[in-house]
Amino acid sequence: MTQLSPVRSWVASANGHADFPLQNLPLGIFSHQGGTRRGGVAIGEQILDLSAALQAGLFDGAARAAVEAMAGGDLNGFFELGRGARVALRERLLELLREDSPQRAQLEAQQSQWLFPAADCQLHLPARINDYTDFYVGIEHAQNVGKLFRPDNPLLPNYKYVPIGYHGRASTIRPSGTDVRRPKGQTLPAGQAEPTFGPCARLDYELELGIWIGQGNALGEPIAIGDAAEHIGGFCLLNDWSARDIQAWEYQPLGPFLSKSFLTSISPWVVTAEALEPFRRAQPARPQGDPQPLPYLLDARDQAGGAFDIELEVLLLTDAMREQNLPAHRLTLSNTQYMYWTVAQMVAHHSVNGCQLQAGDLFGSGTLSGPQNGQFGSLLEITEGGKKPIELASGEVRRFLEDGDEIILRARCRREGFASIGFGECRGKILPAR
Amino acid sequence: MTQLSPVRSWVASANGHADFPLQNLPLGIFSHQGGTRRGGVAIGEQILDLSAALQAGLFDGAARAAVEAMAGGDLNGFFELGRGARVALRERLLELLREDSPQRAQLEAQQSQWLFPAADCQLHLPARINDYTDFYVGIEHAQNVGKLFRPDNPLLPNYKYVPIGYHGRASTIRPSGTDVRRPKGQTLPAGQAEPTFGPCARLDYELELGIWIGQGNALGEPIAIGDAAEHIGGFCLLNDWSARDIQAWEYQPLGPFLSKSFLTSISPWVVTAEALEPFRRAQPARPQGDPQPLPYLLDARDQAGGAFDIELEVLLLTDAMREQNLPAHRLTLSNTQYMYWTVAQMVAHHSVNGCQLQAGDLFGSGTLSGPQNGQFGSLLEITEGGKKPIELASGEVRRFLEDGDEIILRARCRREGFASIGFGECRGKILPAR
Looking at beta carbons, which residues of chain A come within 8 Å of B218? Predict the structure, then answer.
């Protein structure tokens, strides 16, 4: 295992950093004080500029090729190189940045050339997203939402056989910090036969894990379940903003459309499979009576270690809370363990019909709710469709999101004997409809 | 009107050409004998190489800018320039290629530099397709399919208010001539409770009009219905290949996914709005009792001339028919007049929530069936889900598509006093499952 807790970095802010200790080393695309977009690595409160470090002669061989593949200002080419290049770059970064690096004195002396305060940098989308697919593998969410409509039979018959997903809109995916303009659209008022047009009144968040596709496949050539993990480039947080009232009226018979396509927010750092290695776990055994996955979705190694233990958190900050200096209100504390299908199963299913996946494609997991109060990954579930409002310390109540509300997603991986790592935040604030 | 029937071209094969007379001038991306991809124009049996013609000094001003925008080997930059550049290029091409062109002698002498036999060229996708959206505006198809499931109430309540659409898979759109590998997937055999996995047994075509987006919009800024026509870059034919058995099992609750994403075929030539100008017509009056479109979908100019009269044809050619030298069997003869919503209404609806459209996005219209036998745009409708097989002159029957079957889509625009134009073919042949 390349990641061990005792290893510290000579970049002081990395040691004990909640998200970006030396053991994480997530990749992203950033610009420094308005400069060009380039590949970077988060280390504590700093960003390591990979192209500047390349120019300083710090990379050779496969690590060098990995950095050179980012020259276009996105990670697509790097993703396409696959696992080997990613691991080589990680190994070299660990070597450079660890406290006992043999080159430490020299590196510290030249660090101002390629190490910048994150506060002076802007993060961008890490890749050109060719296609975006949103899955629905959070079984607790599927059951919670299903119960609102079908109390006796919340899950549809296909759910435990098919990793359900649908194509999403790629053009409106934005990095954390992008404001969310409240969408307008058609909605059907309760008890009416004709729709009206106006601002969404039931604006919601959805807590999801994002999955970046690394190497793609050729058209017509499925990715076998045993190979699927090799095609995953990394992970992020994803907020699938949802207009529930627009969704309810539009979604039959072809699925969600304008209710989701106004914006999708992601955390901009790509957390690698290598950083998440200590937080892998076996896919939880299916409850008695559940069917086994069909053979094309079943792989012993994936069942033994294809799931992750990642804590997921959602916070709400309102204008009034900001004015009163109140801390953000925790809406959700959930975990990736509530995924009924692994990410490898998603990849194998998506490509089994010959569909071509490409480097830089993004998957969303679907909302990852837990079974208990406090674990629900959307307001639809928390307030039971608006029937049970939330009371906030500011004296406000919320059924759905109001203008000025900010939603903050966070993720944390913890394991005894290992350094904790996080994903960085995925934030978005609601602006009034135009 | 820039298009008048009597105008002939000195390119002899253009005069009376079923698809590409001088009045059409569709744009595309081609390569000549394995060379680089470049912009071209179809004229009769020839392709005019725009970059070679540019080098020969044939373009100035806005026409020159239009051709220069194709330098990257796709039409995205050209689409982004909008209507002005497109019209300037068309005017210049008409001037160059008409029979009485003042430069005719010089042009004929140098034509071998920039005019190639189409038979020596390969056609490619005309643009990088960022996002693909498939609509469902063929009301006769929606009713025919709805009747199979809900005989008394075939249309869902939202249909006459919402231009229904869903996000499709962009990575698997391919130009005419690309073979179609029969997909594998999960299906639920009749009367069974558990799905099986295997090759699709109910493979179908869908006859659609494709719409290319020209200039896009900024995130959060809807395109008003009155401006929508300005954002359309052109038109093509689209075959939305569909695996009906996979679709039936997977599509609840989030819509079609693997049943459509294995391949979508398009005709590679972009037919412009200017070429289609004589074939515009008023949007047919809605039947009595139908609601008026909501104001954001209603524009007097669009109602008066936003629809098109384009004849659409589907042909089937089987291995046995090829062996017996039989002509292709006509499955469908339909028309774009069966669109319940105009293309401008699709654009206005898609962006009304602030969704960003980008140059090179592609829309499908949805299956364009007519109300009568012979006008149905899919085998699902023709054979009533496989219950009424088609008999072919080869002695074969078809419920759905068999391996070796080829589907050919064609379009033709006819109007008294004007030259007819076509779209070129959209072909695809079924290969056995791997």
Answer: none
Phi first, then psi, for residue B10 (nearest 5°) are: -75, -10
Which residues in chain B have their CB less than 8 angstroms from residue A187's CB? none
- Could B353 and A254 be called an inter-chain contact, meaning their C-beta atoms sit closer than 8 Å? no
> Cβ of B257 and A358 within 8 Å?
no
Residues in chain B: 434
What's the helix, strand, coil split of chain A in %, to 5? 25, 25, 50
Contacts of B270 (CB under 8 A, 6+ apart): B26, B27, B28, B75, B126, B212, B233, B234, B235, B236
Q: Do A171 and B358 touch (CB under 8 A)?
A: yes
- pLDDT tens track for B49-97: 999 999 999 999 999 999 999 999 999 999 999 999 999 999 999 999 9
Do you find a cis peptide bond into A189, omega within 30 degrees of 0?
Answer: no
C-beta atoms of B261 and A166 within 8 A: no
- Residue showing tokens 């119960």: A147
Q: Domains in chain A, start-ordered, CATH in brackets?
A: 12-124 (2.30.30.230), 132-431 (3.90.850.10)
Smallest CA–CA distance, residue A172 to chain B, in Å, is 6
What Å distances lie between residue B105 and B90, B99, B113, B279, CA to CA?
21, 10, 14, 33
Burial group, residue A412, by CB count within 10 angstroms (0-12, 13-18, 19+): middle
Measure in Å the smallest separation between the Cα of B144 and chain A Cα atoms.
14
With a CB cutoff of 8 Å and minimum separation 6, the contacts of B30 are: B37, B38, B40, B47, B49, B121, B122, B123, B124, B268
For residue A147 the two structure tokens come to 């119960």
Mean pLDDT of B147-152: 82
Per-residue model confidence as pLDDT tens digits over A336-345:
999 999 999 9
**Per residue in A109-123, pLDDT tens?**
999 999 999 999 999
- A17, A141, A231, A349: the catalytic one is A141
Tell me if chain B has a CB within 8 Å of the CB of A432.
no
b/e map of B63-79 (b: 16 or more CB within 10 Å)?
Answer: bbbbbbbbeeebbbbbb
Q: Does B289 touch chain A (CB under 8 A)?
A: no
Q: Please report the DSSP string for A245-277 in residue order.
A: HHHHHH-TTT---TTTTT-EEE-S-BB-HHHHG
H or E element at residue B245: helix B244-250
Q: What confidence score (pLDDT) does residue B97 get? A: 98
Q: How far apart are CA A233 and CA A211, in angstroms?
A: 8
What mean pLDDT is predicted for residues B133-145?
96
